[in-house]
Write a sequence for this structure.
């Protein structure tokens, strides 16, 4: 068996056997598939798809490519849970959700990824915190989860290593949107993490990889089916990504927004609605309580400061500032140049080209074009307006932070991402539906 024959088989839209898939996954970790061959294989899968059986086999093989975690000897394994988002611009729910769940008595061993395509990655956001170690060894990871209740890190070298290799290639060869590759990538990490429950935030809209609700449903059904087949309780919630989530996009700016949120200083309504929906899904399932009771638990741990305390404990335990809740303004100094971008028209925001806004951030250094690219964590947007907001020529659409030249061309590109109507437009729903 040789790599090019496996690639040719999928290129010609033939079903891969379990042996074929195992050979490919082995090749991701032992080097028998070159980067070029991995790219070709991912493109063949992107073009021709996979059957449900192939997707299950791929997920199982990716899961078994490295270590798997067992929490039963450390904590109550029934309380081990996590959340995953399919990605979007300004999607910062993980940063807020994990400490809130920990404050509610659950354990969240969150293995996060870096940015893919036009979307920002949770791991990149935490890399913007000075000293925070996103690559601890497994023993440290487990200790932090046990002691604090949550830890957000990147993939260790031995946890689903095949996915780690494929993930990095997918990002630079335009195969991010492949449904079977998304399914296997998400679930291999989650199953290997030893979870009992998982909630999926499946984004829908022009700022996500799922441009229509039908695509999002297909992905949700694939994820839930494969997860449950692996014995993992799973629910998918379809949420809006036709606009930036929260008021900011860009790593340092998003961490700042999350700290203000968890300290109860400022909470964007849309961000709060979606985050609470995801948290309550897990609380309802694990504790067998009503949704109202779940919302009351969330409110309690935010108002009494326990969720903020859990966030600070996690950051400190993983090498970040020990008192970040009080020192964040000096710990997260942003030296980028700020410039407000004003509306060129009067009216109401009817549509936002959210994906384009994400791509502009990458051009400015806020994301990667190549695997080896360094990120400028200070790049980003703040105070971003939403669909339905009223504007005129004195209204900032957003505040841009950049270390590159902010010229008229860049300003015009950002302005063109906001479609203004002379008729009043309505706010969009935050939650579309739930699939379980």
């Amino acid at each position: 068996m040789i790599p090019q024959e496996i690639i040719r088989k999928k290129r010609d839209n033939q079903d891969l056997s379990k042996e074929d898939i195992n050979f490919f996954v082995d090749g991701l970790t032992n080097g028998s598939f070159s980067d070029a061959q991995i790219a070709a294989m991912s493109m063949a899968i992107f073009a021709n798809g996979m059957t449900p059986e192939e997707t299950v086999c791929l997920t199982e093989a990716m899961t078994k490519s490295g270590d798997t975690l067992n929490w039963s000897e450390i904590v109550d394994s029934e309380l081990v849970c996590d959340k995953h988002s399919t990605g979007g611009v300004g999607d910062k729910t993980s940063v807020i959700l994990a400490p809130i769940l920990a404050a509610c008595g659950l354990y969240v061993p969150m293995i996060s990824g870096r940015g893919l395509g036009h979307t920002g990655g949770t791991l990149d956001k935490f890399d913007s915190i000075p000293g925070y170690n996103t690559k601890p060894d497994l023993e440290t990871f487990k200790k932090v989860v046990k002691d604090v209740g949550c830890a957000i890190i990147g993939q260790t070298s031995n946890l689903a290593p095949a996915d780690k290799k494929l993930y990095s290639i997918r990002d630079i060869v335009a195969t991010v949107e492949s449904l079977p590759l998304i399914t296997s990538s998400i679930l291999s990490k989650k199953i290997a993490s030893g979870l009992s429950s998982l909630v999926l935030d499946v984004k829908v809209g022009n700022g996500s990889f799922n441009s229509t609700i039908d695509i999002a449903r297909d992905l949700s059904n694939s994820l839930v089916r494969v997860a449950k087949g692996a014995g993992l309780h799973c629910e998918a919630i379809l949420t809006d990504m036709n606009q930036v989530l929260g008021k900011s996009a860009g790593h340092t700016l998003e961490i700042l927004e999350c700290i203000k949120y968890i300290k109860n200083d400022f909470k964007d309504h849309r961000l709060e609605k979606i985050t609470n929906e995801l948290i309550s899904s897990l609380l309802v399932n694990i504790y067998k309580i009503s949704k109202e009771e779940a919302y009351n638990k969330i409110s309690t741990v935010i108002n009494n400061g326990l969720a903020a305390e859990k966030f600070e404990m996690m950051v400190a335990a993983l090498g970040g500032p020990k008192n970040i809740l009080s020192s964040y303004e000096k710990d997260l100094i942003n030296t980028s140049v700020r410039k407000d971008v004003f509306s060129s028209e009067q009216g109401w925001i009817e549509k936002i080209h959210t994906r384009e806004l994400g791509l502009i951030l990458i051009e400015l250094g806020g994301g990667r074009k190549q695997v080896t690219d360094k990120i400028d964590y200070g790049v980003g947007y703040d105070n971003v307006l939403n669909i339905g907001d009223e504007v005129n020529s004195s209204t900032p659409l957003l505040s841009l932070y950049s270390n590159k030249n902010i010229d008229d061309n860049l300003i015009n590109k950002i302005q063109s991402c906001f479609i203004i109507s002379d008729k009043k437009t309505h706010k969009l729903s935050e939650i579309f539906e739930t699939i379980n």
Summary: The mean pLDDT is 93.
